[in-house]
């Protein structure tokens, strides 16, 4: 069974969906072994704890320290790293150790609305301000470039003139819930058996 570390900084709806997905019948090829969080007030902590998943709250300095971070990954036997609303850059030593095994979800159709500062509601505000007729999600490998790794999967959703950043966020979260865990399973669990 593959062991997943979910890295998250905020609400944690994706983290929760992924934990639940790999506990549901027929999806036992992986499990979430640990949640890593860099914000002590993030809702993801409560969500993971409620589901009995160990949570490790770490400072940026700890995350960027090879001994601390690789030690944690080793202790939990982590095979795959899944970013789910994680707002720090992944340190280079982790990119090296987990090459091809780190995945991120971004709430737009990359390369549009990606890069530094483009996360969460900032993305949806920009999409609405630009009058876009669609938005979507991108699931991609993580590289040293912000939102720049190879794209694995995209799905789109219409944006209408009466949409607000909040309604777009709702549509995007629904797409994320539908696809993220499934794509992780296909690309990182089934394919790496
Ligand atoms: C998600 O929409 C995710 O795509 C986005 O943050 C949200 C986290 O929601 N990620 C980024 O913007 C990364 N650049 P969640 O905490 O409820 O899973």
Element layout with pairings:
Elements (H helix, E strand, L loop, with lengths): L1 E7 L4 H9 L8 E8 L5 H8 L4 E3 L2 H4 L2 H10 L4 E4 L8 H6 L4 E5 L13 H10 L4 E8 L9 E8 L6 H26 L3
Parallel strand pairs: 1-2, 1-4, 2-3, 4-5
Antiparallel strand pairs: 5-6, 6-7
Glycinamide ribonucleotide (GAR) binds next to helix 1, strand 5, helix 6 and helix 7.
Beta-strand residue percentage: 15-25%
Widest beta sheet: strand line-up: 3-2-1-4-5-6-7
From the helix content, strand content and strand pairing, which structural class follows?
alpha/beta
Shape: globular
Which stretches are low in confidence, meaning pLDDT under 50 for 5 or more residues running?
A: none
Mean pLDDT: 96
Summarize the helix and strand pattern as letters: EHEHEHHEHEHEEH
Bound chemical compounds: glycinamide ribonucleotide
Give the N-terminus to C-terminus distance in angstroms. 9 Å
Radius of gyration: 16 Å
Question: Total number of β-strand segments?
Answer: 7
What is the count of DSSP helices, taking H or I runs of 4+ residues? 7
* Proportion of residues in helical segments: 25-40%
Q: Biggest β-sheet, characterized?
A: 7 strands, mixed
């Amino acid at each position: 069974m593959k062991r997943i570390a979910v890295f998250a900084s905020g609400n944690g709806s994706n983290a929760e969906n992924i934990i639940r997905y790999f506990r549901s019948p027929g999806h036992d090829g992986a499990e979430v072994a640990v949640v890593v969080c860099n914000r002590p007030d993030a809702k993801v902590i409560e969500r993971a704890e409620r589901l009995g998943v160990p949570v490790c709250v770490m400072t940026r300095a700890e995350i960027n320290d090879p001994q601390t971070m690789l030690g944690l990954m080793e202790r939990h036997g982590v095979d795959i790293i899944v970013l789910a609303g994680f707002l720090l850059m992944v340190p280079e030593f982790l990119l090296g150790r987990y090459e091809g095994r780190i995945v991120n979800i971004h709430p737009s159709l990359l390369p549009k609305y990606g890069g530094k500062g483009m996360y969460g509601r900032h993305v949806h505000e920009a999409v609405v301000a630009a009058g876009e007729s669609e938005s979507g999600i991108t699931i991609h490998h993580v590289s040293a470039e912000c939102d720049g790794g190879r794209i694995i999967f995209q799905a789109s959703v219409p944006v209408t003139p009466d949409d607000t950043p909040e309604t777009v966020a709702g549509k995007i979260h629904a797409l994320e819930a539908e696809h993220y865990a499934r794509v992780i399973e296909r690309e990182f669990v089934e394919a790496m058996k």
